[in-house]
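lol forgot to send this yesterday, sorry. struct tokens for the thing we talked abt
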């Protein structure tokens, strides 16, 4: 019997579809699931008469794999991954490869890479984006981990990945240990921002302009033909056109306004906080989901708390265009934050990240795939050391064109009591980044006043610290730490 090229553990939606994708590209795939009956059901159903081998134990899975063995885990992140690594290790040999294809926390991947390499094996932590359809037809794949493992999985990963028009696969090596999962985490953080900004556009059209879902469908459909062309705009247009079979109402009007989340947006925000890198739009998108979750509280509060009733008397078409521009400008800032965060992480963890290459990985197959990403690649081709996307000529000019409309949309939203946390935080980020002087001098003076935390002076070199006896009752002793 021919040995399998790769083994997949986990037969949930993503696992099954990746197996079928691999098999369709000519690879023989072995599969295993902790609930063994799922293996038999899969073989009798979607995998029937395909080059797919079922295994009923870890031992059997390892036995049917060609060397070096490649085992890809498509299981729940966290402790289950550690537990399964322990199950695999006694059955694998030096040079075999364990691959984690789930949404694992990058810090766990750094730890697991070191642990598995110490056992003489190789480890890959890879982001896989595109959802159910992407897994089957071609996802964006972001592998990182043991560099020696890449040549063994590259033919499989690049064969199954999404392709751009010229045939280039949306898959390439990202970097050592946790780099792949970090890039996937930031991808998801940007996705949170994108989704929230689209939701705010919808909310403005609904509550400020009184538009119906069908009318909004037409707007998003038109937007998808221009510079906002993207997967998320495309599916939003389709969602707004959908009618509920049970009630006959627009589908969006019967869906409860509470959003879930799996943690990657929160991890992105936490990482930004850990590294002192501003990523407010991602954070606001996460907080917006938290706000949505307290539905009962909001319903009760809506009966007690006063605010303006939305009323807009201007031209609808003009405001729709201004919302489009605000969405585009906010999107630029959200991506700028994500790439700035990856730049900080590259320095922190010693990763040699190719930012233009990362933009290429996201052109097709993934949730944030968009025409816009070509411009990011061009920006980093022109300046590989670019500090922030906002400084690239294309994006700087795009913001200049949209800035007036963007500010007006945020102002109108505030005046009418319509929450737009992603739009407004993106604008605040832009205004903060473009200002040579911010009010942090007051913050640092306060810190020095109550805690002797010291400060730097505008008329002295950076790195020299001073303390003032503000009350006349303090001494010359100051705190020993200062974090800018």
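and heres what i got for the seq, position by position
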């Amino acid at each position: 019997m021919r040995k399998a090229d790769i083994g997949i553990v986990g037969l949930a939606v993503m696992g099954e579809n990746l197996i079928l994708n691999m098999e369709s590209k000519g690879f023989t795939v072995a599969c295993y699931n902790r609930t063994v009956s799922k293996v038999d059901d899969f073989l009798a159903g979607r995998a029937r008469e395909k080059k797919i081998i079922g295994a009923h134990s870890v031992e059997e899975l390892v036995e049917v794999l060609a060397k070096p063995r490649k085992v890809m885990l498509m299981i729940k992140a966290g402790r289950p991954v550690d537990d399964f690594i322990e199950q695999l290790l006694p059955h694998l040999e030096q040079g075999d490869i364990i691959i984690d294809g789930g949404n694992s926390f990058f810090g766990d991947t750094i730890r697991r890479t070191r642990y598995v390499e110490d056992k003489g094996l190789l480890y890959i932590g890879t982001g896989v984006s595109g959802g159910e359809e992407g897994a089957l037809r071609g996802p964006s794949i972001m592998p990182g981990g043991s560099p020696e493992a890449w040549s063994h999985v590259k033919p499989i990963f690049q064969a199954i990945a999404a392709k751009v028009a010229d045939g280039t696969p949306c898959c390439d090596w990202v970097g050592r240990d946790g780099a792949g999962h970090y890039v996937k985490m930031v991808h998801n953080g940007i996705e949170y921002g994108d989704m929230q900004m689209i939701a705010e556009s919808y909310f403005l059209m609904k509550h400020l302009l009184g538009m119906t879902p069908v009318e909004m469908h037409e707007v998003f459909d038109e937007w998808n033909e221009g510079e906002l062309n993207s997967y998320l705009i495309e599916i939003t247009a389709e969602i707004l056109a959908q009618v509920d079979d049970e009630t006959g109402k627009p589908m969006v009007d019967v869906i409860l306004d509470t959003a879930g989340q799996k943690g990657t947006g929160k991890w992105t925000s936490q990482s930004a906080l850990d590294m002192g890198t501003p990523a407010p739009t991602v954070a606001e998108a996460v907080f917006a989901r938290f706000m949505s979750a307290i539905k009962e509280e909001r319903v009760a509060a809506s009966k007690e708390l006063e605010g303006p009733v939305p009323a807009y008397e201007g031209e609808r078409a003009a405001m729709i265009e201004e919302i489009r521009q605000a969405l585009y400008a906010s999107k630029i800032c959200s991506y700028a934050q994500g790439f700035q965060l990856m730049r900080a992480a590259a320095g922190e963890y010693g990763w040699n990240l190719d930012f233009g290459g990362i933009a290429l990985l996201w052109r097709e197959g993934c949730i944030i795939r968009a025409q816009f990403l070509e411009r990011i690649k061009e920006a980093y081709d022109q300046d590989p050391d670019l500090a922030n996307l906002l400084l690239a000529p294309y994006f700087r000019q795009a913001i200049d064109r949209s800035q007036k409309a963007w500010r007006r949309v945020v102002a109108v939203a505030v005046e009418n009591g319509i929450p737009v946390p992603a739009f407004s935080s993106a604008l605040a980020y832009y205004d903060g980044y473009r200002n040579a002087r911010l009010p942090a001098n007051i913050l640092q003076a306060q810190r020095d006043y109550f805690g002797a935390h010291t400060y730097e002076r505008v008329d002295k070199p950076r790195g020299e610290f001073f303390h003032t006896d503000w009350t006349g009752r303090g001494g010359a002793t100051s705190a020993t730490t200062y974090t800018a």
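Residues 259 and 290 are 8 Å apart (CA to CA). anyway ping me if u want another try
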